[in-house]
Amino acid sequence: MASSSLILLSLTILVTSSLLLIPTVTAQSAPAPGPSGPINITAILEKSSQYNFFIRLLNQTQAGDQINNQLNNSHEGMTVFAPTDNAFNNLPSGALNNLTEQQHVQLVQYHICPKYYSLDSLLTVSNPVRTQATGQDGGVFGLYFTGQANQLNVSTGIVDVPIYNALRKDFPLAVYQVDRVLLPKEFYEAKAPAASPPSGRSGAAADSGDARAPATGNPAGNGSGKMNVGLGFISGIWLFCMGLLI
Ligand SMILES: *[C@@H]1O[C@H](CO)[C@@H](O)[C@H](O)[C@H]1NC(C)=O
Ligand SMILES: *[C@@H]1O[C@H](CO)[C@@H](O)[C@H](O)[C@H]1NC(C)=O
Ligand SMILES: *[C@@H]1O[C@H](CO)[C@@H](O)[C@H](O)[C@H]1NC(C)=O
Ligand SMILES: *[C@@H]1O[C@H](CO)[C@@H](O)[C@H](O)[C@H]1NC(C)=O
Ligand SMILES: *[C@@H]1O[C@H](CO)[C@@H](O)[C@H](O)[C@H]1NC(C)=O
Ligand SMILES: *[C@@H]1O[C@H](CO)[C@@H](O)[C@H](O)[C@H]1NC(C)=O
Where is this region: Disordered (predicted)? Predict the structure, then answer.
């Protein structure tokens, strides 16, 4: 008697658990269309701990979701230039605080190209290279690439920085580390005469061999100043998000 009620009990458990299992299994198989699932830019950046600022920006401006969706729907692929947390900390004070909400979105979009570029192809690409950022007049913000002795630089006309590390390099998504935030010259054109695009004549041919050299510098110095910039920027983003909610 005891055994039959045990059997009954275990049968009940079996049926209930299989009933519970069915929806779980179907729910899990649904969002995994490809063999390896969709590409997730956040997950790629999270493998290293030095992109927290950029991850937050991608999330808050929803550019991250946009990348993931666009990758799924385009045959061109995409390229992302990911500034490190250090890059944000080293921005001159006021550089971000003064930006409008729209400019914050433009800034993120400026780090994203709607096409896949290998490092080799960037060495010979024709400038300017279009980004996802556009001005009010619909004009596309461009990036400039200069290659010299196998060293590749990306320039905005204001910022010029080497590219030496790929977080991901296979089609359809390339992700490259940049040690400075790529500030579009369009942000400053109204205030000051724009710096002309890079000429490629640098004269500094000495560092052709070791492409890793410029990674660790801390030229801006002064930690308290940096903290102010970071906090100002974060509060700016927060205000921006509140604006979105309203
Ligand atoms: C992408 O990855 C992040 C972090 O791993 C995760 O929080 C997020 O839900 C993922 N997004 C999608 C669409 O899978
Ligand atoms: C992304 O933003 C949402 C709210 O906008 C927040 O709940 C979530 O924690 C954020 N995720 C990350 C990884 O920052
Ligand atoms: C990818 O695109 C296909 C068709 O274009 C769509 O059915 C699928 O839901 C998309 N997947 C994601 C994760 O966006
Ligand atoms: C930011 O704005 C303030 C006040 O408008 C101005 O004095 C300052 O020069 C600006 N800084 C930058 C970097 O544009
Ligand atoms: C790349 O930029 C650095 C400054 O960040 C500069 O010293 C170097 O000459 C540039 N190289 C090229 C090839 O433009
Ligand atoms: C750092 O900046 C603060 C004010 O922003 C200043 O009082 C201090 O002297 C600076 N320290 C150095 C080492 O430059």
Answer: 192-221
